[in-house]
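Notes from hallway chat w/ T.B., transcribed later so I don't forget. T.B. wanted the structure written out for a chain they're using in a teaching module, and asked if we could keep both sequence and structure tokens in one place. Agreed to drop them here.
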Amino acid sequence: MTNSLILTDIKINLAGENAVIIYFSEQVSPETCRQIKQAQQLIKNHFSDKIIDLVPSYASILIVYDQLKINHHQLQHQLKTLLANLIADKNSQDKKTLVQLPVYYSIESGPDLIRIASQSNISVNQVIECHSQQEYQVYAIGFAPGFAYLGEVNLQIATPRLTTPRLKVPKGAVGIADKQTAVYPSESPGGWNIIGLCPTDMFNANSAAVTPVQVGDTVKFNAISKQEFLSLGGCLPSKI
């Protein structure tokens, strides 16, 4: 039995006693992200209760399976068939899922706005426009439950992580790190540049959909006023 099956650019490798990892590409791209989203749904539908966990990432999916219900040989060869169908249909247009997230952009909610504007030689309003006018791909969810890595930020406002991370970043903080952007789902330490606050709950363990976004979705940020932020349940921290 081989340890890897190669389907064009897709590879299926052993990743543990009851796990395999599917690599879709060596490069992160919207096409790779589209394939991962489609493959994830196909795997869920086909294997149903045989799968313990699916973990999609930038260019891969980790599959943890129940050895009492399927063995590695069966899983690998059934995946081969599923992914061959995926490749054959790679030019099909999947329904685009656009998730719109409100953001209160301001100096009080985005303490790094002025610095980013200064470094980019543009105004604070232009930073906000750059960030809110773009649509972002959800490439991965990790670091913390509901923390979605979104890309790519306009190069004009792409900013390196802070040299010294903050000890407390508030829930809902919208940040930039290099060419990625994200919303902090809960209060935590963090080194991303904060430009605003989002009132949308990015993780709810008691909800049927624990996060409002999934890998493969597209996100658009919409600028809102302070009053709108508060009316949507947002809370301004005493200090960021």
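Follow-up for T.B.: The CA atoms of residues 31 and 91 lie 9 Å apart. Might be a good example for the class.
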